[in-house]
Design a protein that fits this description.
104 residues, alpha/beta, Rossmann fold, 4-stranded parallel β-sheet, 4 helices, 34% helix
Length: 104
């Protein structure tokens, strides 16, 4: 199966990626690297993991990465309460702009 993980280079996302790869799945990671780090994905096979540096609010990238996937792990969010207090609307955008497609 194929999966997309938004903010996949963060702590939670990279662990989801490791688990999916261990189970034999292919993974696309979308992360703007504002919180996540490419080093968190070290050791994952390039043949099974595609890392894209980009913003989840970029619908073009999201549409490209969701083609043919079986599921999305949407982990993109601001983890800093101070960021949310200082700029509440931009902090919420990653949670509201991702198109949702559900498959049975």
């Amino acid at each position: 199966m194929k999966f997309l993980i938004t903010e996949g280079a963060g702590f939670i996302g990279c662990n989801i990626a490791r688990r999916l790869v261990k189970e034999g799945h292919e993974v696309a990671v979308l992360d703007d690297m504002s919180i996540g780090r490419e080093g968190n994905l070290k050791g994952l096979p390039a043949s099974r993991v595609r890392v894209v540096k980009g913003d989840v609010r970029n619908t073009g990238i999201v549409k490209e990465l969701t083609k043919g996937v079986d599921g999305v792990f949407h982990e993109a969010a601001r983890s800093s309460a101070l960021q949310v207090q200082a700029q509440p609307l931009p902090a919420c955008y990653p949670c509201t702009d991702l198109p949702v497609v559900m498959k049975a």
